[in-house]
Automatic annotation (TrEMBL):
The name this protein goes by in its record: Cytochrome bd-I ubiquinol oxidase subunit 2 apoprotein
Membrane-protein topology: Multi-pass membrane protein
GO CC terms: cytochrome complex; plasma membrane
UniProt xrefs under Pfam families: Cyt_bd_oxida_II (PF02322)
Native organism: Williamsia limnetica
Entry keywords, A to Z: Cell membrane, Membrane, Transmembrane, Transmembrane helix
């Protein structure tokens, strides 16, 4: 039962990484779009692209936290006590990001729009960095077992945590650029297609360089994860690399029919590889999934609640995304 719940937790994390990651990445491109005039058209496309779905994407983050604290309470306590600083920054960033995104459209003065836009864009980079640093801290063994608190600052400032944060930002930017290419093509905006095509290529190159450096960092500072990635999770890492390269080749050739699916599959495969590499541990080499699990009655009730929630929520989310892709949703006012 505990393994099934761990898989459910991984599904929630993957969903947030793919959908929420693309959302945050759009904010990154908003940040680097340039001044008011130069960045007007990219920002208009970004607003149109994420406007209908940005709130729905955070469902997966809430879901993941609920599953973690219900099914694995001691591990949840250890993570939140040790990493409360980046988690608090991320939570504050999510709130400020959402408020700024909404208020930017409501204010009339240009300077006010700039201020809200700056908060939105900055938070869009800060949040994925902090969440990526949390994953890195867990992977490198910075979180102690037994519901105890580790070092509040050094725990998420080690090389693996920094690698996790940078990778989260870069991958989010790449996912967003690929999605924005598709949105611009659907809207018939060839100029924005080319604009985000160049940025997708640049983000892919940076991601490749970061991953290459990450191999050396993981080997030195997270040997258990490195060994898992280069053995039992190696086929998934190869799949991730092939999908990423295929997506980039299609973008370079201006053929974007399958680039969204391939880029998403690359991220999913990499995250599944991370989970497989860390198996059977939740906290590497200290706490296994079985050891951390709540009583079987709690796990059973959680699984029933998860299935019921999925039957209610997933069709609604699916309909939302389908309507958004078909341009059948009204723009936010």
């Amino acid at each position: 039962m505990s393994d099934i719940i761990a898989i459910v937790l991984m599904i929630g994390i993957i969903a947030y990484a793919v959908f929420g990651g693309a959302d945050f990445g759009a904010g990154f491109w908003d940040l680097v779009a340039g001044g008011t005039e130069a960045g007007a058209r990219p920002r208009e496309l970004i607003d149109r692209s994420i406007g209908p779905v940005w709130e729905a994407n955070h469902v997966w983050l809430i879901f993941s936290f609920v599953v973690l604290w219900t099914a694995f309470p001691q591990v949840y306590a250890s993570i939140t006590l040790t990493l409360f600083v980046p988690l608090t920054i991320a939570a504050l960033g999510i709130v400020l990001r959402g408020a700024s995104f909404a208020f930017r459209k409501a204010v009339l003065r240009t300077r006010d729009r700039r201020r809200f836009g700056a908060v939105f864009a900055t938070s869009s980079v800060l949040v994925p960095y902090c969440l990526g640093a949390v994953i890195g801290a867990i992977a490198s063994g910075q979180v102690p077992p037994g519901g105890k608190a580790g070092d509040s600052f050094a725990s998420w400032m080690d090389p693996v945590s920094i690698l996790g944060g940078v990778l989260a930002v870069v991958v989010a930017a790449y996912l967003a650029a690929v999605n924005l290419i598709a949105d611009a093509r659907r809207l018939g905006d060839d100029e924005m297609v080319e604009y985000f095509r160049r940025r997708a290529i640049g983000a892919a190159v940076v991601a490749g360089i970061t991953l290459a450096a990450g191999v050396l960092i993981l080997r030195e500072y997270a040997p258990y994860l490195f060994d898992g990635l280069t053995s039992r999770a190696l086929p998934l890492m190869i799949l991730s690399g092939l999908c990423g390269v295929a997506s980039l080749v299609l973008i370079v050739r201006r053929d974007t029919r399958f680039s969204q699916w391939l880029s998403g599959t690359a991220v999913v495969a990499a995250l599944v590889a991370y989970g497989v590499a860390q198996t059977p541990y939740l906290l590497p080499e200290t706490v296994t999934v079985t050891e951390a699990a709540a009583p079987s009655g709690t796990l059973g009730a959680l699984l029933v609640a998860t299935v019921a929630a999925g039957l209610i929520v997933l069709p609604s989310l699916g309909l939302l995304y389908v309507l958004d892709r078909k341009n059948l949703l009204p723009e936010e006012g």
